[in-house]
Amino acid sequence: MRGRARKLRRPRSVRQLAESKLAGGAAVDLEKLTPNEIRGFVHELEVHRVELELQNQQLAEAHLAAEESKEGYRELYESAPIGYLTLDSEGTIVAANLCASELLRLPRAQLLGRKLSRFIAEGHQDRWHFARRALAESSKRRSLELELSLDDGSTLETQLVGSGRPEASGALNLALLDVTELRGAERALRRAASAVSLAEQQERRRLASDLHDDAGQLLSLASLKLRALADAAAGEQDDQFRELAEILAEARRRITSLSFQLSPPLLHDVGLVAATRWLAEDLERRYGLAVSVAESEELALDEAARVTLFRAIRELLINVKKHAGVDKARVQIWREGVMARVAVEDDGVGFGRDASRGSFGRDAGGRGFGLLALRERLGQLGGTLAIGSGPSGAGSRVVVSVPLTTREGGSA
Hints:
Blueprint: H1 2-8, H2 14-22, H3 35-79, E1 83-87, E2 93-96, H4 98-104, H5 108-111, H6 125-137, E3 142-149, E4 155-164, E5 172-178, H7 180-231, H8 237-262, H9 265-269, H10 272-287, E6 290-293, H11 303-324, E7 328-336, E8 339-346, H12 367-380, E9 384-388, E10 396-403
Parallel strand pairs: 6-7
Antiparallel strand pairs: 1-2, 1-5, 3-4, 4-5, 7-8, 8-10, 9-10
Helix pairs in contact: 7-8, 7-12, 10-11, 11-12
């Protein structure tokens, strides 16, 4: 019965044996185990060994993935196009990436251990002091612009974006962006806007002068004739009336001509080519400038582009008369891809070597300034202005371009 009872006893697992024997510090006595218990014990050990191997493999894979991720973040940090700095609670640089080293123009070994405040321009020290204190007291991201004075004597306009580090009291993480070119472009844009505004004021003064010199003088003369007419004898009144009628007719013609120069109805009713041909006839009649307009079909342009190109043609042709020293000019209007182009050429004295440098030629106070304003107006439409010599190598050729659009305002 004892042997039979021994055979019927259920084998204990390795975990049950461990709990009953090892928990109290006692060793497992293999001699007291039944063959089934020994086989179960060995099986449990084998299963446990496989589980440990799988866990070790998973840990190794996780460790490798963590190392790869860490390396990826390190490479991203080092190769980022933005400078990154880490400051301790004293404002000393304790970490910097390659971009920060390049922006501050110091090897990283010389950069570490220096206080960032040593790079801040004198006029921005107070701004940095208050910003650093605000950043250290809050984990919120803040942005400010600072001018840096570098060791080589140069200056750098930067935007700093930073936040405090909660795990390290007073320490900061900063991103450093070079905005020197951006701020320079903004200043240039403001100067250009001022130049355009001044050019518009000069154009208004010129128009006022034209009205005064032409229509104003004629109307003054008509007023004198009216006074003389009142005192004239009966036989002289017919002649006085004829002279007065001629003066008023001439005043009307000049006012109409000036109005047409500013915005001819042909420009809006027919198109740019027709308005340019009318302008050529008017300039020859008024100034003696013979302008040939190449044959061309009307282009699909919106109103802003038509007006801008017409005013550009008028301004360039008047510049030819005033500055080129010739009495002939040529105008060509054509389509090239998605751009509408206008070329104004002459065989005069040309712009000289200053044109390539952007001063636009021979009269910085007049012709050159007008072309600068014209370039800015074109830029607002996505257009360009190119200056060069004429086809023969002499004279000048100015090409004005704007994006070609439909009359409804969509892209061509």
